[in-house]
Here is the input.
Amino acid sequence: MTGEMMLFTGNANPGLAKRICQRLGQPLAESMVGRFSDGEIRVEIGANVRGRDVFLVQSTCAPASDNLMELLIMAEACRRSSAGRITAVMPYFGYARQDRKVQPRAPITAKLVAKLIETAGVDRVLTMDLHAGQIQGFFDVPVDNLYAEPTLYQYVRDNLVTGNPSDTVIVSPDAGGVERARSYAGRLGAGLAIIDKRRSAPNEADVLHIIGDVKDKAAIVIDDMIDTAGTLSKGGAALKEAGARKIMAVATHAVLSGPAITRIQESVFDRVIVTDTIPLSDAARNRSEKIEVLTVAPTFAEAIRAIHFNDSISRLFLPLQEEG
Here is the structure.
């Protein structure tokens, strides 16, 4: 174990950081993360971190570059102040979708971000539902990729599946998400369907058809994130056309950029369930009563506690592993 545990937060998601601290029975350590008059990021660590086990809670959500720089500068400040160990707690890992070359002269930005985080002095990374699992290999420091599935699954089981589970179908929004959807379907005893789509451009996709029986069933779309909600709303419309009687969506990361809130509000979805890895603004809450937010603070608090005491966190993955 490395020194006393201390948690700091930037401006990306202070609400989640406070909820994690409440679960840990730990105060949020004093720091100031602001701006100089020219817009440069200003960081002052207000507590002694020498020899301490430091956890920096900071999602790199929008504005992604600003929040990433805040994390890097906080890590640099703690490293220069002789922190014993620095763990970057990144509930949402920005730039994760830029994980491979899609064109001849395109960057692999997720790899660059990993190297920046390491260079800033971070010893370990704790994140959730990485968009691409191979990003863990971009780091030369340990990376723990937690799953929101236990939290989301419990909510789906207790609130969205009513009556006979066979009257519910879990829907993958694309071929890449089939494993995730199959895990939910298997444990719930529900059916499985896939939305066959072709992506014509970033944030744009055309739904081709639905693979599986959704007629007269409650359809629950399971995804890792909702960005502009264009693909989601088209998928919902296709499910409605295929005869689904009720349509819901469940996702970990509520990116909700551009027209996402309007699209969700105007869509056929009855409910959209997300987590607080990314904060949902008051404006977003007020514009759509369809969106519900679950907290993943207990999962992160348990992982932080385990890391601090050098315990295994594999138990946090057991609900996923049981599906084999």
